[in-house]
Amino acid sequence: MVYKVNVNTGKRCAMIDITAEVQKIVTESGVEDGICMVYIPHTTAAVTINENADPDVVRDMLYELDKIVPYSDGYKHFEGNSAAHIKSSMFGFSENVIIDSGRLLLGRWQGIYLCEFDGARSRTVYLKIIDSGR
Ligand code: ZN
Questions:
Q1: How much distance in Å is there from the Cα of 120 to the middle of ligand 1?
Q2: What does the domain layout of the chain look like in residue ranges?
Q3: pLDDT averaged per 10 residues in sequence order, the chain, 134 residues
Q4: How far is ligand 1, taken at its centre, from the CA of residue 58, in Å?
Q5: Measured in angstroms, how far is the CA atom of residue 103 from the centroid of ligand 1?
Q6: DSSP strand E in 1-134: where?
Q7: Which of 27, 66, 102, 123 is 20 to 30 A off residue 72, Cα-Cα?
Q8: Top CATH class, 2-131
Q9: pTM of the predicted model, to two decimals?
């Protein structure tokens, strides 16, 4: 079984905290101990884990990322969204989080983010919850 989280990303580039939605599905699954794989089936979006306490961290990450991978830079890809493809592969398409006593085992300041690099769009995040049984 694969669970889905649907997210409307709202902007061209954004990092959207989906931790609460993921935890809700983990809770509803009833799995106490295991792994939650968070996977995004898109080529211009990504999944990452980073600080969710200070919103300026997300702002700074997106700001610096735009300098490393500019929106326009003589790319040849006909869709004109090469920067989004490059950023997505830099961040990656999945994260695995340990489930401990029914809770995502994240650090105090960590959250799970859907990273949008070619929005605004409607995105889907897949969750695979694996019960380790102990
Ligand atoms: Zn493209």
A1: 14
A2: 2-131
A3: 97 97 98 98 98 96 97 97 98 98 98 98 98 87
A4: 24
A5: 36
A6: 3-8, 14-17, 34-39, 45-51, 94-100, 103-104, 110-116, 122-131
A7: 123
A8: mainly beta
A9: 0.96
